[in-house]
Amino acid sequence: MGNRSSEGQDVGLDAWRTLMNWLLSYAQVRKVTGGTMQCNKAMVKIMKHSGMALDAVHLKQELLDGKPQDLVYFGKFRNKL
């Protein structure tokens, strides 16, 4: 995460899954959500591969280098509802 030598080793995915599972283990937490710009391909991939589902898209919500970017939001519910 942030170190080029760890790219492709799923360090970010492992960290995201660990945090998400820890949060979902608490009875008070029924859903974990996260969002990023659509152009952040690495984070979008992490959210998809961690079992999160697309919740919403805010079209052209942010600007990156003067170009409009969509924000994508993902979510995962606790299994034991």
List keywords for this structure.
single chain; 81 residues; alpha+beta; Aminopeptidase; 3-stranded antiparallel β-sheet; 2 helices; 3 strands; 28% helix
What features would you describe in this structure?
The protein is of the alpha+beta class and 81 residues long. The protein has a 3-stranded antiparallel β-sheet with strand order 1-3-2. It is built from 2 helices and 3 strands. Strand 2 and strand 3 form a beta hairpin. Helix content is 28%, strand content 37%. The radius of gyration is 14 Å and the shape is globular. The mean pLDDT is 88.
In the predicted model, the low-confidence regions spanning at least 5 consecutive residues are none
The average pLDDT score comes to 88
CATH C-level class is Alpha Beta
**The CATH fourth-level homologous superfamily:** Gcn5-related N-acetyltransferase (GNAT)
Order of strands across the main sheet: 1-3-2
Helix and strand composition category: alpha+beta
Number of domains: 1
Beta-strand residue percentage: 35-45%
The third-level CATH topology is Aminopeptidase
Order of helices and strands: HEHEE
Number of strands: 3
- Give the terminus-to-terminus CA distance: 32 Å
The tally of helices reads: 2
Largest sheet: 3 strands, antiparallel
Architecture per CATH nomenclature, i.e. the level-2 architecture = 3-Layer(aba) Sandwich
Helix content: 25-40%
Radius of gyration: 14 Å
Q: What's the shape? A: globular
